[in-house]
């Protein structure tokens, strides 16, 4: 399993930690860590899911899975199971 994280020397105050699966439509957050197998993490990083990038939740399928997230100018659909392994910090 590949664990990638991004830490800043000066974090802004506040910010709730959660997973990408918990992000509500229209909310945005900073991606902090991908706790996924190396192949999956590498592919997501190629799509823009890099620690430190801002991710926002867009729409979802009628059943709620998959969900669409906006990152780095793209829209990417992810299954909830994958999104549960992506740690975020919700910004105020």
Descriptors for this entry?
mainly beta; 92 residues; 14% helix; globular; 2 helices; seven-stranded antiparallel sheet
Helices and strands in order:
Elements: E1 2-5, E2 16-19, E3 28-36, H1 38-46, E4 54-60, E5 67-71, E6 74-78, H2 80-83, E7 86-90
Antiparallel strand pairs: 1-3, 2-7, 3-4, 3-7, 4-5, 5-6
Commentary on this structure:
- This protein has about 90 residues and is mostly beta strands.
- The chain has helices at about 40-45, 80-85; strands spanning about 1-5, 15-20, 30-35, 55-60, 65-70, 75-80, 85-90.
- Strands 1, 2, 3, 4, 5, 6 and 7 form a seven-stranded antiparallel β-sheet that branches.
- A hairpin with a 6-residue loop joins strand 4 and strand 5.
- The longest helix has 9 residues, at about 40-45.
- It is globular and about 30 Å long.
- The relative contact order is 0.31.
- Mean pLDDT is about 85; it is low at about 5-15.
Class computed from helices, strands and strand pairing? mainly beta
Spans of at least 5 consecutive residues whose pLDDT stays below 50 are 7-13
Query: End-to-end distance, in Å?
Result: 31 Å
The radius of gyration over CA amounts to 12 Å
**Main sheet?**
7 strands, antiparallel
Average pLDDT, to the nearest integer? 85
Provide a brief overview of the structure.
Helix content is 14%, strand content 42%.
